[in-house]
Write a structure and sequence with these properties.
Length: 251
């Protein structure tokens, strides 16, 4: 596949080929998008969801408001990092977890190992299984156009439900590049509608898709670590750079 060009759903390239420099500049000054096929969502549901996660993970989750979220992690008894993720409260009994796909099984296995009588069910087949990231300083403008809503300020890791291109879409406020950004999640059957809506709404801000190389450069510049590449289970949490966003010492 050419850099900066995603296949459209009629078999043709959806946008013109771009260079790494053009992709980088647009991400830092405008808005870009990329498909998150290496990330996934899973859901935890039940009356004990947040009390259990409070006891098993590194951050403070029991006091989260509905619609709020935070960075989080799982460590072993020696404080070595097992996986990192973000958690988003969609109701009093349900949390969405956004995690890199290769870490999902580790997270589920570790949590289930310590789940005994707690009322929690784990769903790895959530209906919002197609993820795309909008990133860049103009991404809030684009999101307003996509959702046809007025301006709204959202904190990092907040989550809300929007209607985009006629379909229910989960929106998570999350930077993957160091710029303002969002992760949009819809049913896989609606992926073409979502991508086309993004392209149409983003025409005025010059939105372009970016490739993996640019995406990696942006997150390295922003100091965003990736598990198994920049950190692994040989590291304790303070060595990873996640301590400021994924740990509460007041639990």
């Amino acid at each position: 596949m050419n850099r900066g060009a995603l296949p459209s759903f009629n078999g043709k390239s959806s946008m013109a080929v771009t260079t790494l420099t053009e992709e980088h500049q647009q991400a830092r000054e405008g808005c870009v998008y990329f498909i998150l096929d290496d990330w996934c969502l899973l859901a935890a549901t039940g009356k004990d969801t947040f009390s259990f996660l409070q006891s098993q993970t590194t951050n403070e989750v029991v006091n989260l408001a509905v619609g709020a979220g935070l960075g989080n992690a799982l460590v072993d008894r020696k404080a070595r990092l097992l996986c990192n993720f973000s958690l988003h409260k969609t109701s009093d009994t349900t949390a969405l977890i956004l995690i890199e796909a290769h870490q999902r099984d580790t997270l589920i296995h570790q949590l289930k190992e310590y789940q005994f009588r707690e009322d929690i069910s784990w769903n790895t087949e959530v209906p919002f299984n197609f993820l795309v990231a909008l990133q860049g300083p103009k991404s809030p403008v684009l999101l307003e156009r996509l959702t046809e809503s007025g301006p709204g300020l959202h904190n990092t890791n907040d989550v809300f439900t929007a209607n985009i291109a006629g379909h229910e879409t989960q929106v998570i406020c999350k930077s993957l590049t160091g710029e303002e950004g969002y992760v949009l999640a819809c049913a896989e059957t609606h992926q073409s509608d979502l991508i086309q809506a993004i392209q149409k709404a983003g025409e005025s801000v010059g939105i372009i898709p970016i490739g993996a190389e640019t995406r990696d450069t942006l997150r390295i510049e922003a100091g965003i670590p990736v598990y198994s590449r920049d950190m692994d289970k040989s590291h304790i949490l303070p060595e990873t750079g996640l301590e400021h966003s994924s740990v509460s010492y007041n639990k």
